[in-house]
Amino acid sequence: MKQITLTRPDDWHVHFRDGDALGEIVPHHARRFGRAIVMPNLKPPVTSLNDAMAYRQRVVDAIPAGCDFTPLMTLYLTQKTSPEDIENAKQSGMIYGVKLYPAGATTNSDAGVTDIFALLPTLQAMTNVGLPLLIHAEVTDPAVDVFDREKSFLEQVVKPLLEKLPDLKVVLEHVTTADMANFVIDAGGHVGATVTPQHLLYNRSDIFRGGINPHLYCLPILKREQHRERLCEIVASGDPRFFLGTDSAPHSQHAKESACGCAGIFSAPCAIEVYAEIFESLGALEKLEGFASFHGADFYGLPRNESQITLINKPWTVPESFPMDNKNQLIPLKANETLHWQLV
Ligand code: NCD
Ligand code: ZN
Q1: Residue 53 in contact with residue 79, Cβ under 8 Å?
Q2: N or C: which end of the chain has fewer CB within 10 A?
Q3: Whether the model pTM is above 0.90
Q4: Ligand 2 centre distance from Cα of residue 253 (Å)
Q5: How do residues 90-127 score in pLDDT, each as one tens digit?
C-alpha cells in the first residue's frame, strides 16, 4: 500500500477559540501537527503577555495525553501596543508573532488597528527583537470591493510599510491573490506567506455552485480561478517562503448557516490529509514535506520537528459534523466527502 512518511508538520495559522470548545478543537490539531501559531482573536482579544500565558495554559490543558504538540502564542496588535510590550513579549520566549487585524476586517477584529502607520515605534521594536508581524492583509474601506481588498491592502499598506521598515519580518497570512503571492516572491526572505487548503482547492464560483454554500465562506474570501492556479503553481514549485497555515476557523453550524453567516472554514479534522491530496493532484507530492514541515520552521527560526507522521493511501469519509457543545455542531471542510490519504 502506498504511504507517505513526513517530518511532523506544523500549522502556522490556527483559531482554537476558548472555553469548552478547546476540548473539541485542539485534539484535531494535536494529532496531526507538532506546533501551531495560535491566533489571538478571542473575545476579548489576547493583547497582553499575561492573557497569552493564561490562554496558552487553557490550550495545553486541552491537548490529549500522548500528543507531541506545542502551541505557539501570539499577541493581538492594538493601537496601544507599545515598544515595551514587544520587548517584554520577546524576552518571555513565549510569544512568536504579533497579529495585525485591520479593525473590522474579520471575526473579532473590532479591537484591531485603525492606523498602522501610527505604530511605527512598536513595529521598529519588533524589527529590533526579530518578532514577526502576522498580517491579515485586507483593507476595510466598504467602498472597496470585497474581492479586491487584499490587492488594495498590498498597495496601501504592505508596500509603504516595508519601505519604511525594510527589515521587519512579515507573514502575509492566508494569501489569496496572485498579486500578493508574487509580491512575496519579489520581497526577499524576510517576507513569508501562509496558504490555506481552501484557497488551493476552490475559487469564488464554488461558493455559489448549486446554491449558496456558507461553509465555503471565509475571509479573505475565495478568489477567481486564475489566483487559485497561481497559488497552486507556487506551492508546487517548493518556494520556501510559502508554508502551511490552515486558518482553521471553527464557527457553529448555527452561526454558519444563518441569514448573516460567520466567516471561517473548519479544516482541522482533515487538514494534512487534504494538503496531501492537493499536492498529489499537482503532481508535487515530493514538495509536501517542505511546505508542511520545513519552510515555516525555517522562516520562524525554529528547529524542524524530529518526529514523523504517516499517511496511507486508504479512502475514508470526513464526518458530516463534530460536536461543539451541548447545542451546537461544527461542519468541517470536505464534510461527507471521501479523501484518499488517511492519517495512521
Ligand atoms: C477567522 C475567524 O473566524 O477567526 N475567519 C476566517 O474567515 N478566516 C478570522 C480570520 O483569520 O480572518
Ligand atoms: Zn485566521
Answers
A1: no
A2: N
A3: yes
A4: 18
A5: 999 999 999 999 999 988 999 999 999 999 999 999 99
- Phi, psi (rounded to 5 degrees) for 52: -65, -40
Rounded to whole angstroms, the Cα distance separating 38 from 172 reads 15
Catalytic residue among 61, 247, 298, 325: 247
Among 106, 216, 333, name the best residue to mutate to test ligand 1's pocket (greatest count of ligand atoms within 8 A of Cβ). Answer: 106
The domain locations on the chain are 3-343
Rounded to 5 degrees, φ, ψ at 306 are -100, -25
Count of all residues that appear for the chain in the document: 344
Which ligand sits nearest to residue 217's alpha carbon? 1
CB distance 55 to 38 below 8 Å: yes
Q: Report which ligand 1 atom has the smallest distance to the Cα of 219.
A: 7
Q: Which numbered atom of ligand 1 lies nearest the CA of 108?
A: 4
Residues 27, 14 contacting (CB under 8 angstroms)? no
Q: Could you tell me where the beta strands, DSSP code E, fall in the chain?
A: 3-7, 11-14, 35-38, 70-76, 95-100, 133-135, 170-172, 191-195, 242-244, 308-317, 322-323, 329-330, 338-343
- Which atom of ligand 1 sits closest to the CA of residue 251? 3
145 is catalytic: no
Phi, psi of 39 (to 5 degrees): -70, 145
